[in-house]
Design a protein that fits this description.
Elements lengths: L2 H30 L4 H27 L2 E2 L6 H14 L5 E5 L6 E4 L7 E5 H6 L2 H16 L2 H8 L1 H17 L8 H44 L2 H15 L20 H10 L1 H7 L6 H6 L7 H7 L7 H9 L7
Parallel strand pairs: 2-4
Antiparallel strand pairs: 1-2, 3-4
Helix pairs in contact: 1-2, 1-6, 1-7, 1-8, 3-5, 5-8, 5-9, 7-8, 8-9, 9-14
């Protein structure tokens, strides 16, 4: 089975599971409130359509993006155009995020309406070849059409936690009509909604990690230089270490997950010799000096389940063994 087909199957399975458990909690709640199937199904569809339509709008508002006009930053736009043609996808709109942390991501309702966001910090940090490798990674996301899937499935955990919070709050006041049994029923449904949130969030995170691995392979296949993306990942990780302490709306789309960079650098330290052997041209001296030795623990293993990205170390090793083939 090819890597692309593997990704598609994984996306379809994850999407089906997330939708099934998400619809289950909405159905249970509305059925408890006395709604019939003729009302539940259209309402659920309306929720999904709202997520599909609103998520790009909210992301644009939160990031304060500057969309490039024709002729603005021509070298960057030409690079994106060439990479989009290579990936056989429409050229996305290109926007600059006026922030210093180096990162990039793509988002949109469809591949045709996608936007490629490049942080100003990334443009300042990387050389031309490294930037091309990062942008090729982002084109991999468009080629695999995973941005559409992520935009939809991310809604299920969000609606589940919203239901859980509201039902717990309502149950404190006795539920419908102030009845004790009603309040207990709402609390039970609230607990179920919270479980749905955890399970669906883990599925979304798992899918997100798969997305990143396949996009990395696409970059290696296009550039024929996996060390370029590896070098970029190292630089981005080093710069962003400790830069963010809480999640944000674009976290799952970023090329590096802020919340795990400290752990990543520790792993790079622990596997210094292996990295040097697999990527002899990769300069990691500056990172090695700052990194601290880390022992793998049950806590770290559990935390990795909630990561939107594979660790930087694992991504670099995967790039070193990709043989420039996307599959």
């Amino acid at each position: 089975m090819s890597i692309i087909n593997g990704l598609r199957i994984r996306m379809y399975i994850t999407m089906a599971l997330v939708f099934a458990i998400g619809f289950g909690i909405v159905y249970a709640l509305l059925l408890y409130l006395g709604a019939g199937m003729g009302f539940i199904v259209p309402l659920a569809m309306m929720f999904f359509i709202m997520q599909w339509y609103l998520s790009p709008v909210l992301l644009k508002m939160g990031m304060k993006l500057h969309y490039l006009e024709k002729g603005e930053r021509p070298e960057l736009q030409e690079m994106v155009r060439e990479l989009a043609k290579n990936a056989n996808v429409p050229m996305p709109k290109v926007a600059i995020a006026p922030v210093n942390d180096p990162n990039a991501f793509v988002f949109g309702r469809t591949v045709k309406s996608a936007t490629l966001v490049v942080h100003q910090g990334l443009l300042n940090m990387l050389d031309k070849d490294e930037l091309r490798a990062v942008l090729a990674h982002e084109m991999g996301h468009l080629k695999h059409m995973d941005i559409v899937v992520m935009a939809v499935v991310a809604f299920i955990p969000a609606i589940a936690i919203m239901i859980a919070q509201n039902l717990f709050f309502s149950s404190m006041f006795g539920g419908r009509g102030g009845q004790k049994n009603s309040g207990m029923s709402l609390a039970v449904i609230g607990i179920a909604a919270f479980v749905v949130y955890l399970v669906s969030q883990l599925l979304v995170f798992s899918l997100s990690r798969a997305r990143e691995s396949y996009a990395d392979r696409h970059s290696a296949a296009v550039t024929k230089r996996p060390d370029l993306l590896a070098s970029s990942l190292m630089k981005i990780t080093a710069h962003n270490r400790g830069a963010q302490s809480s999640p944000n709306a674009a976290r799952a789309f970023y090329i590096v997950d802020f919340l795990n960079v400290e752990k990543d650098i520790k792993e790079i330290k622990a596997h210094e010799k292996e990295i040097r052997k697999l990527l002899p041209n990769l300069d990691i001296d500056s990172l090695v000096e700052e990194a601290r030795q880390s022992k793998k623990s049950a806590v770290n293993s559990f935390a990795s389940l909630f990561s939107t990205h594979p660790s930087t170390y694992r991504r670099i090793i995967d790039l070193a063994t990709s043989n420039n083939e996307e599959g």
